[in-house]
Amino acid sequence: MNAPPGLDFASIPERIQSEVQRAIQRSIKGVEYFSTSGPTLGSTPKDVLHSRGTMNLYHYRPMSDEIYRVPVLIVMATTNRGYILDLVPGQSFIEFLLKRGYDVYMLDWSAPRPEEKSLRMEDYVLDFIPDCVRRVQADSGEQEVSVIGYCFGGVLSLLYGSIHANGPMKNLICFTTPIDFREMKLFSNFSDRRYFDVDHLVDSVGNVPPEMILSSFEMLRPASRTVSQIQLWENIWNDEFVKSYRMFDRWATDTLPLAGEYFRTITKDLMWDNKLFNDTMSVGGRAAKLENIKVPILHAVAEHDHIVPYEAAKHLIAKIGSADKEEVMLKGGHVSLVAGANAVKRLWPKLDSWLGKRST
Amino acid sequence: MTDKTNDPVAMWQKMVGEMEKGFNSFANQAMSSPEFSQAVNRAGGVAAGAQKQLGELMEKYLVSMNLPSREQVTGLAERLQSVEAQIGEIKSMLSQMAANSGISQGSDGTPRPPRTKRPPSEGGDQA
């Protein structure tokens, strides 16, 4: 009887030995896993420049002898914590920017308190972001500010930029930012206006609970959590895998609640009426048309993004009024586009080469 | 070295990957239907109503136990928030005063680097 092609009988004992060693390691590391906490995240040195309710403005301490003239303000998505952009040294987008000579600020969110359930879209776009921009200007002594928005932070940045067209925004970078909400098919179906009574929900619970936000994300790929736990067990002998798993798992499950009124507007204006895409969006009575944005813009999208599919993001560049505009599609998913080994090689260098020459 | 097509571990991993893709795709199809939306929102609506009623019941219970109600704790949080805001304003004023006095320094008191960096393409240093 012949051996199947490619099967090397000589390697079998070696393979068995390796699997036995891994099995032992799994047992040891499995105990370690449950008895230790994960790596410390978000540890790049920073100062809290301002804090007001759900809003936090950080300034990261420079790591370069010389910095670019124009400071950078990162606007984080309101559903998640900003430390995804500052995981651990060597895998921190913030650290990368600092070492490349950028002066970095971040608008990050903490869970809105029960009394903040009445925060509206106006509060985010016409108060929080402009307030942070003013503070960045005062702190840096520079009038112009580049803005980077991640996911829904990108939507907020677009709304801010379209309303403050003559404002201090020098450059705009959006990561995986949806504008055509009809194309977020599953979210669209979950919030079908025929069956989803957003008024009842918001009036009942105030702020939308984080469990509900997390469930809606997890429902997009219902098998993935179980499979990732199987993969964790298989690779628990591998310290690097476990470290990475813990970082991303902790972040993904650290979802924030959303302020009730703000969620009501997102549902009605964006999910139901698709106003940003249809050029009918207004915030606090002020028209927010994407064509008003004239500053240089870079939009980075991920090839395998299951949260913001390309169809939901692809019209952004066409609708923007800027002459200097670029879309870049990179390999990866919604999170791996901006964080982790994939981002270190792909997005970060691209961003640096684009932004550096526009930051002097 | 064994071929991946005959490696039982690789085969298992491939199978798990395929199962994940297949199940996700099947579930996504099922979740795209209006019936799914109707069912999930009906359940969600009931849960939200129940949560509201439970909240009201808890409030009454806390009052009867002479414990601070949510409203009182929220009141304390608001006062704390106001103190935090005032500290923030004081820090901001101090930074502004330092900036006005011509000292370029961060809020931690350390001097800031000069804003003179040029991109490498224009002859600037690559950090």
Automatic annotation (TrEMBL), chain A:
Q: Which SUPFAM superfamilies match?
A: alpha/beta-Hydrolases
Pfam families in the record, alphabetically? Abhydrolase_1
Every AB hydrolase-1 domain range? 93-337
Could you identify this protein by its name? Poly-beta-hydroxybutyrate polymerase
Which source organism?
Bradyrhizobium nitroreducens
Q: Which lineage?
A: Bacteria, Pseudomonadati, Pseudomonadota, Alphaproteobacteria, Hyphomicrobiales
From TrEMBL, chain B:
The organism encoding this protein is Bradyrhizobium nitroreducens
Q: By what name is this protein known? A: Poly(3-hydroxyalkanoate) polymerase subunit PhaE
The record's region (Disordered) falls at 96-127
What is the top-level taxon of the source organism? Bacteria
Q: Where is the composition biased (Polar residues)?
A: 96-108
